[in-house]
Every structure is written in structure tokens, then in C-alpha cells.
Request: fold
Amino acid sequence: MDSFEPVFLSLGSNLGDRMENLRLAVELLAPVCAIKKKSSVYETAAWGKTDQPDFLNIVIEVATRLTPLQLLHTIQETEKRMGRERNKKWEARTIDIDVLYFKNEISSHSELIVPHPYLAERKFVLVPLAEINPDFIHPLLQLSNAELLSRCKDQSEVRLFTN
Reply:
């Protein structure tokens, strides 16, 4: 991949072997996403629908030749291969993969909005994102990941996970 413009993905799991789910998801994405950086693993309470097991979360910075929609479809196929079923919003899941940023692009498509519309409101995304690339500028808000984290009103605890 000639000129590298970062794409950031958030991965979370709260069912089954959560660490193995994260590892496998990264492995399954590797053929189309060259992993440049991977955050530490963080444990957080579920967001949105809280009566479910805690999540393990990571953020990865990747390079890809895919378009945003091709990447989304690859992600959805990966989630499906790993047993993800989409029944209800914010339900427990083996794997959840979101596109946070796609290079510096701003787009709103019926299937995908980039940057992720809730990125700045979710500490469980901002902590690992700021860890691996604190200086990346949100193309809409014109704030760095570190600035977004410092301004985030989300009070949920994001704990470094060690097993």
C-alpha cells in the first residue's frame, strides 16, 4: 500500500472467549487490512443496553485498498463468520466491528457514516483510539483524538485488561 492513510476500526466482544474473538477478528481482516497499530485491550461495561456482560475492546489502525463500503461488507461477513447475529440494537455479541475513520473522508451513506457518528461520545472507543494515534484529527470536528477524549462527557470506566 503505497501512500498510507490510516483507517481505524473498533472491535468489541462480550460473549464467549472475548480475547480469542478479538484475535480471530483481526486475523480474519488481515488479508484485506494491513495492521499498522493495535491498542491495548480494555474492559468496559456494555454501552446502550447495560444488562449484559462486560466488553473487551480494542482499536486497530489499518491500511486497506478497499473502498469504505467494500470494507463494511468485509466486516459484516467477518462478524457473520464469527457467529454474530443482528437481532436487537446493542445486544450482547461475539464480535462487533465498527469503522471509526476512513482516512480523512467524510461520507454519509445509507449503510455507513464516516467518521462514526458516535465516536466522540464513547470513551471505550476514544481511550484506545487516543492510545494508538492521539494526534489524528477528526475531519468534521477538527479536534485530535486526544482532544476528543479530554472533552468526552462519557463517565463510564474503561479499564486496561490483563488476563
